Amino acid sequence: MKKIAIAFDTSNYTTSCAFFDGEGGENAGRLLDVKPGELGLRQSDALFSHVRRLPEIVDALPVSGDIVAVGASETPRETEGSYMPCFLAGVAQARALAHFLNVPYFGFSHQQGHIAAASWSAGHRELLDTPHLAWHLSGGTTELLLVRPQGVAVRCEILGGTRDVSAGQLIDRTGQLLGLQFPAGKALDKLSGEAVEKRSYLPKKNGCHFSLSGVEHKMKQMKEAGEKDAEIAYFALASVVRAVHQATEEAQKRYGGLPVLYSGGVASNSLLRAMTPEGIFAQPRYSTDNAMGTAILTWRAVNALG
To answer: How does DSSP classify residue 192?
Structure first.
């Protein structure tokens, strides 16, 4: 029977569980329910939803193997003071399971899990053991990171990213403006493919940092002017891509052209992928919030124990 590591991730808006056996694995996850017209959940509501949803997610995971370790995403980042209550649901489940199975428990950050899932699913496992640049693009995070190995995981230093609205927030606000269901990423991506004029805007930047509030202001003007929804969708997405490219070029000048990994839910966007042929992208299912990266790190941790 194969030995496997199990992990949980209960981040904002996705309840996830996964296992990894050193070569491959499987994950199961589901978005939390958000009422039409709303742009998210309060942390207390998200935590309650995760607790209620976890049994369903665990039942959906086809686990086959001898569980040798259990892990969880404990915080948004590995930095001191990083905290979000919704992660407590996965941590509690993982710690209880580890105790009753008498196996070790390991905790990581959600961001570390994203880096691990992206590098593994992109076929670049070596990135977990070598310095590189990485984008964490999600609903609440738009950060350009300098990533260095740290034990079985990685240490992330923020080099740049947005100063105000995150890429995911801009996408969801655009979706709300166009009457799309939250989260709006997939629907907006599809809608942008119908654009004909394909205009975009280069956001203001300062080094590797930039602001996306100007993009939001301009897309609202487009809506008021009666522009087609597809053109607005393309405008929002393409403007984010241009900002990301500009910051990436600046960082590569500073750090000698390090490879660039793209992780997080926004990294599954087809326009970003098409406009960034040199980027290293996770498979779309592992770009979104999931526990696979944490399972990979948990596997590395238990094997490091010997």
So the answer is: H
